[in-house]
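Thread: Modeling a multi-component assembly for a lab meeting

Hi all, long-time lurker, first post. My supervisor asked me to bring a structural picture of a complex we are working on to next week's group meeting, and I have zero experience with this. I have the sequence lines for every component (384 residues in total). Could someone generate the structure of the whole assembly? Inputs are pasted exactly as I received them:
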Amino acid sequence: MTGGRRRSESSRLAILDAARDLLLERGYERLTIDAIAARAGVGKQTIYRWWGSKGAVVADAALEGGLAPPLVAPPDTGDIEADLRAWLRDWTSRLASGVGTSLILALTAATAEDHAVADVLYERFTAPHEQLLRDRLELARVAGQLGPQAPVPTIAGVLIGSLLYRVLSRQEPPTADDADLVVRVVLGGAGG
Amino acid sequence: MTGGRRRSESSRLAILDAARDLLLERGYERLTIDAIAARAGVGKQTIYRWWGSKGAVVADAALEGGLAPPLVAPPDTGDIEADLRAWLRDWTSRLASGVGTSLILALTAATAEDHAVADVLYERFTAPHEQLLRDRLELARVAGQLGPQAPVPTIAGVLIGSLLYRVLSRQEPPTADDADLVVRVVLGGAGG
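Re: Modeling a multi-component assembly
Sure thing. I ran the full set together rather than chain by chain. Output:
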């Protein structure tokens, strides 16, 4: 590794650390590229050379800096309703911390404003969580707890999308009751 | 109105027109504050004086510039399943145009990155659509097409959130089949 490359890697890490710390301290809304540059001791242009937007820096900071929630599979007690409730309630508690909601809003902004970042975030953050949920739903389908033709990918998307919409539209985390209602609608149906 | 106030209003309108036109021409991702300023013939600082972010300008441009989809109530044929399908399919066709997806991504970015913009967008854009959907669901509940205790606000959020998540995670509009599957899960339930 050349000295230049080493300096460059240390700047990159300083920027990611600064972005992570500032996100925790002040939240996404009040986070600026200027503040990240000042904290990291680099010029603003250095940040723009590597990242196209604030969201892109924050996405990398979350993925590399250990902010992103850990990958935890839904429980498998054999009761799909109880397990989905537990999984969704677990997410609502994670979101209920300031960091949780801030982080999801930050990752959503990054996704919505930059196509390339969206692909990376989907692949590295969203898809692994979604896959664990699909796996649990598929077990339930095979066990006869869902209809034999239940559209597992759609159900997973409905569960995740409901929580996400709740965070976006209210700018606050869903409650445990919200989580229970979503599971009730998705498993039991609203009809008849 | 003083000359200064008049100039100021004409700059504001020029900025909103420029933002709307550029969004149509190149999409949200390649839209910059610099380009809006150049097209509108104002300084960049004039834009930052009134709006805190690109998303905030685009939100106003959408709301005032007629880009936002018209408020159309779900049909009421007396068959809630057919009516929800028609309503969701209608949204998928709107989203299928480049502008539709671009616009929803832009409004989502604006919502996720700025708390104050989020409130305005929810009140002026999202809530009116959501209310029409809730009204239709409430009619169905009263008519016995949904369960007597069906949680109407949750159901509306589940339907909207599912489509939104689909757009965000795939960066492309849902299909008519996606819409039908979501309605099937939400009305019929995935269980048993």
